[in-house]
Amino acid sequence: MFPKLITRYVIWELTKIFLISSFAFVALMLIVGIADEARDRGLGPEILVQLIPFLLPKALMFAMPATCLFSVCVVFGRMAADNEMIAIKSMGLPQSVVVLPVLALAFLLSLFAVWVNDVSFAWSYWGIERVVLESSDKILYGVLADQGSFKTDEFSIEVQGVEDRTLIQPVITGSRGGNPFRLVAESATLTTNLDTHELVFAMNRCGFVDEGGQQVSARFDKFEQSISLKSPEEFEKQSGNPSHLYLSQIGQEIERQHAAIEDAKEIDAVRACSQMLTGDLIGLTNSDWEQRLVEQGEATFRLRRLHVVPHRRWANGFSCLAFAMIGIPIALRLKTANYATTFGVCFLPILLIYYPLFMFGLTGAKEGTLPPAAAWLGNIVCMLIGAILMYRQFKR
Hints:
This protein is an alpha+beta fold. It has twelve helices and eight strands. A hairpin with a 3-residue loop joins strand 1 and strand 2.
């Protein structure tokens, strides 16, 4: 059976408002995201344009819950103000004839939001990292042309000038394999090695110097120096970060992490027994065991995060349904076509209740003081409040 005319009317009004407001919200969040990337990484317009496809899911992820709330506030607030809900009841129809289809739509939207969250945390993150990595040489050329110097935790470089893609009299200071170095060259060019995550400086008439400026090795007519953009430890940490894994990868990672923890415990048990049997009291009390305990704590913390990530993404997605359940009864009760007032009245309790409870549950789940499902705490409370308000509204 096709939906009733009034049901199709409400769904169409809600969809229309949702699409229009989504465009505005996403555009605003996209501008904010682009501005943040430009400020934090010093990216130029050409690179920022390449980042837009990867920033779009992130903008959509933040905009969808607010847009869903805004849409139900506009539609149901106007219907209540124009006495359309009274007209529906006068025809002998319950208010649920328009509310339940909207909740079903919000449920479907929440499922889509879960997928957007998954794409944003995994695909968008690595896409942004890849674009920035591929453009590292362009970024560095731009900074050096404007400021004449560039510095990171890994290295620093100063130049007298930049002509096209040639660095004039570069001075590079850094370390490789734990050994510090300082290079001075007449000129150099710069490229990015994507396979090794390194910047490669091809230098002409180059020499090594010490801090005092004295040459300590022969000069080279041609010399290449590679500098890691990220340390191997930092790259490994990013690759294993549960926040940047797809939901489809979480199950396998949990099994691997469990196995790694059990293997580490068995190795530690064998080692401790061996030291006790041989009377190696010094070995039992040295700093190696402290480091092992730290590593075990980090492994256990990562395992907890792996368990929390699915709950967090599903809870983030279903905030659309939770916000709709709050917005519908409040909009019907206020009976005003002023959508700004309705949205403000709805968003204030969400701001004061949902987000603090969500952060409390998420933090507790990560620390192990609460179960992983505590990430749903804000959603559950909002849904309960919304269900109570709707029950009272239907009884009126």
